[in-house]
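Section 4.2 – Deliverable D4.2 (structural model, holo form)

The reporting period included a commitment to supply a predicted holo structure for the target in complex with iron/sulfur cluster. Inputs used:
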Amino acid sequence: MSAVASERTISTLCPMSCHPTLCGMRVTVAGERLVRVEGDPDNPDSRGFLCLRGRAAPEIIGNPAGVIESLALDYAETRRALILVGGSSMHKGANGRQAPRAIARLPALTGKVGIPGGGLGPRHGASAHGLALSSILPEQGNACRAVVPNQMPAMLEAFEAGRIEVPLLSGTDMLSSFADRGRLEPALARVDLIVCHDLFANDAIRACADVELPGTAWLEQLGCKMTHTHVYLMDEALPTSRETGTLSRILPGLAERTGLEGFFPWADDAGLIDAVIDHPSTGHVSVAALRAEGGWRAMTVSHQAHPDNPFSTPSGKVEFYSERAVALGLPGVPVYEPVPTAGGAPALPPALPPEAHPEPLPRILRPRPGLAHPAPARAVDGAGRCGARYT
Ligand code: SF4
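Output (structure tokens):
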């Protein structure tokens, strides 16, 4: 008779990747078996909430092979069948890349590529068959001497090793969205100066920020949105509130003070957006043209994926075997990889008290001797608020 594994409960995050929500999840396991998932009441942001999708997370794993085979057969036998691969964070796990690699082969194996209503559906952040925007990155490439990949483990290691001295955290609550808050919080405590820019005083600002810069809401700034069918203008509808500022105000100011030339070569945000949306897939649209046309324009992109089947593979055809993967030291085809046994569970510290954003002023939260003020010669009032101005 086999021994019954004892249950243990791990505090983690919902794997569905709807950033910045990332609700806290309590997962109870017995050995390698999932027993249940619940909302984590100690998560300072979600406070026990899990939506339907999060509560359905157990259905992702542990499915018998027969269920998966039956779904694949249903897909194969349905002419207009589309697979929407969701939850990108699920694929960042130890062996997570294998499932999407296997799933991505199914449309080609079953003749669904290049037909209306077939293939793979659009995934956020993904572009397909001609949909693109213009790059504003410098042509000479990245001149940085040290680069930290934008992946949680790499950033965490860089913080712990003291390789990041003055991070500017814009629109992110790292203490909520990083899986291992127990390691991140002490690592951030060792950073020289943390500047946060956000609409609300989030958890990371309350716990770690030295300087808080209030951000704008979408209605307070010019912007643009693109879907797979249209490009939309998001015109400024409200004046900015008090001292709030967009990144396009903060970053050029920083570049100027640090002597970085050519960082923001446009006269204003409209110039920046024009440079990005000036592309064949938008019909070379501009902010002025979108305003004149009522705020939106249809993309010049086929609604049907790969209608004439050219692919961005080395051969230009569907490739089941990936030479690129092999060059990266990965198997050429998806294979089964056992999940590494989990180590210790990261623990969340106790919840912090809720606190509304007091008022939209830049604030020095923790003046430190010897640190240069981001806006020198400004007074700090009795409440610790700084009279700094975005310049
Ligand atoms: S519980 Fe729902 S809202 Fe929260 S992260 Fe998961 S999918 Fe998103």
